[in-house]
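Batch manifest, entry 17 of 40.
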Amino acid sequence: MKERTLRILAALVDDFTKSAAPVASQKLLKSGQFKVSSATVRNEFSLLESVGLIQSPHTSAGKVPTQKGYRFFVDELLDRGFQDLSADRKLISNVFQKHVQAYRSAKTKESLFDSLRLAAQLSGNIGFCMLDHNRGFFLGLSNVLRAPEFAQNPEKAAEIVEILEGREAFSQFLNELNLPYNQVEIFIGEENLLEAVSSCGMVVSRFQTEFDSGYIGLLGPIRMRYGFNRELIRNLLQMIR
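Output type: structure tokens
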């Protein structure tokens, strides 16, 4: 694909992630990122739709990324300069600084709890830490209810909360992923084979310390900020090593 096509896809993903509303060609043009006509953007939309990376929800004139589109964005665009993460990295590093110092001086469950709560607040998603023997905690469960995707589907939101609070099925699901230690992985939509969270995005890593081992991550709608959330989990991993 041409670079312009890729930049339009990246801009569409970014806009939809923030707004949760289908993105029309005129909206992208108003951002000032593209010095082309509306017809040109629509042609690029048609190309992206033909390869399954975006789609039109219902009768909307706007487009939204598909699960395939999000996976392409994460794998092919996120680390190639199509999304500037420098400001995110600086913000996360600054806000985590005192938590890093607190954890390294005490290495307590409470300091990890506080740091994960901060990650949940910054991301607007659910923060989770699952330890061996089905121990663990979840923070920001109310964030599920605020996301438009789940606010409009309370049954799905309740199903997600129920599977997390039950712990056992979610813990088994994480164990079956066979993740390597200290590597941040991203799962999108139906890549999450546990049905209750197959409408979610997840950024997760497996960790091991001298005291504990388990999984730490963020769970939210497919429309989550994958680059931002990956930086959050990387910072948490650096803190607890």
